[in-house]
Amino acid sequence: MYPFTYTKAADTRQAVNAGRRGGRYIAGGTTLVDLMRETVERPETLVDISGLPLSEVTVTERGGLRIGALVTMSEAAADRKVRTTFPVVSQALELSASAQLRNMATIGGNIMQRTRCTYFRDVTAACNKREPGSGCAAREGFNRTHAILGTSDACVATHPSDVAVAFAALEATVQLLGPDGGRSIPFADFLLQPGGTPSREQSLRKGELITAVEVPAYPRPLRSGYLKVRDRQSYEFALTSAAVALHISGGVIREAKVAAGGVGTVPWKLPAVEQHLVGERPSKSLWAAAAARAADGARPLEHNRFKVELLQRTVERQLRIVGGTK
Questions:
Q1: Could you tell me the pLDDT band of residue 235, with boundaries at 50, 70 and 90?
Q2: What's the maximum distance between 2 C-alpha atoms anywhere in the chain?
Q3: Which of 94, 102, 213, 283 is most buried, judged by most C-beta within 10 A?
Q4: What's the N-to-C CA distance of the chain in angstroms?
């Protein structure tokens, strides 16, 4: 670990000023400290924001949810408002990491976490995300766990967050505070696909601080849930996952929100699946036909071709679980 200075922000203004000067924000530290130990990250200054008043879960005026950036994963998962209005969020959180990590890690930190690609974390390997222009060892290396959607010649690393998949499906927004004031950005625009600049992972401006994630209100009843497929039952990242939310009224699907994890360089929204569902009546054949569109545009690598079918099967299964069958 390289030397660094440490400061604790007393309020959001102090935090933003420190961030504008190049400080890196830290709260739970469950990702950043690991990367510092491995010398992947080498920040000169850490800004501790753990004492800021960003730890509430509230219902918005229109009936959505606002989850403060410093709410821990375990707090959000256990919150009654989250569990009753958006089970897909609480389930995604409960299927993440270990209980100890969920007690420390925050919502803001979770969506900011960096990839678990082994080449990214190996400072001797070529990685454009860690060292721009050095190449991507994963493309020709062992790439079983890597992305099949949203990839580029420069990077094929997956985004590791589970709850980010739920937020992507629900079309959440990320609330930010920076030197120029506050702004709101759609979740789909917050996390960036690698393209030719994989080292730039979020659309944050210098000094900006995440203050909350807001999930919009949806018509009720809304059925939702999260399914995670992995090599072992716990403490493992997804090979594929599916976040599904359906509004079914009068026996017809009026609204469908679907996203996948473990397969994309960012949490992957599935508009083709959603479009196939809206206006239809739930049935086994509908779930299968919609899920067949889940891997549209996939570009599998040598060792992860299995993810195409696995993704389709995962989405179909979760549609069946959430929407029911006849």
A1: confident
A2: 62
A3: 213
A4: 57
Helices (H), the chain: 12-20, 32-37, 73-78, 80-85, 87-94, 99-104, 107-112, 118-121, 137-140, 163-169, 187-190, 271-277, 284-291, 306-323
Phi, psi of 275 (to 5 degrees): -65, -35
pLDDT of residue 326 exceeding 60: no
**Cβ neighbours of residue 271 under 8 Å, at least 6 residues apart?**
none
Taking a C-beta distance cutoff of 8 angstroms, is the pair 154, 195 a contact?
yes
How, if at all, do strands 173-178 and 45-48 pair?
Answer: unpaired
Which domains occur in the chain, in start order? 57-112+160-215 (3.30.465.10), 222-323 (3.30.390.50)
37: buried, middle or exposed (CB in 10 Å: 19+, 13-18, 0-12)? exposed
- Candidates 272, 268, 251; CA nearest to 260 is 268
Q: Are 226 and 242 in contact (CB under 8 A)?
A: yes
